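User: Show me an example of a complex going from sequences to structure tokens.

Assistant: Sure. Here are the input components:
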Amino acid sequence: SYELTQPPSVSVSPGQTARITCSGDALPKKYAYWYQQKSGQAPVLVIYDDTKRPSGIPERFSGSSSGTMVTLTISGAQVEDEADYYCYSTDGSGDLWLFGGGTKLTVL
Amino acid sequence: EVRLEQSGTEVKKPGESLKISCKGSGYSFSTYWITWVRQMPGKGLERMGIIYPDDSDTRYNPSFQGQVTISVDKSVTTAYLQWSSLKASDTAVYYCAAHDSNTPPAAFWGQGTQVTVSS
């Protein structure tokens, strides 16, 4: 069955760049989406179509894609960016959508 | 403004049935897909399935097929997630999310419903 693979955790100091990866065989053909979930809150979309940022999301959030991997980059990470981040995409058929396992970002 | 209001916390016993709801407002309910997502305690997000209210076209992720039922009532702009016989392993927070053809998938989220199943 199809899987999206993320590192369990990433840790950076405030002001550093955080990079969170997501790998999947269909990612060269299918867009990925990134959601931020802070403790006790519902998820929020932060990147769509691999690289686009919804209105209201700070410019320090960006996305990129290369082959079977997509990357969420937070340039100059801030303490308030501490959260779990999930990638979301579909398999080659477009019928099965699933989340990656999630990455806990620690900023301290 | 798209708003999704979910029903409140539920505490049930194993074997009981349950139906939780997700009421949409501020948009054309019939033409926005509704996705249901499970989050078990301390775990990640899992997409359960999706429904298109206009024609009730419903698709389940394989792990949830036969385990839950997703439905809608357009007259009250509400989507539902139901169980016929709950298990302790159904304990989780359940989210609904909405999108249409012009927005990213799961662009708008409800606040979540906590379901606890315990004897």
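The lines above are the inputs; the final block is the predicted structure for all two components together. Residues 81 and 114 of chain B are 13 Å apart (CA to CA).
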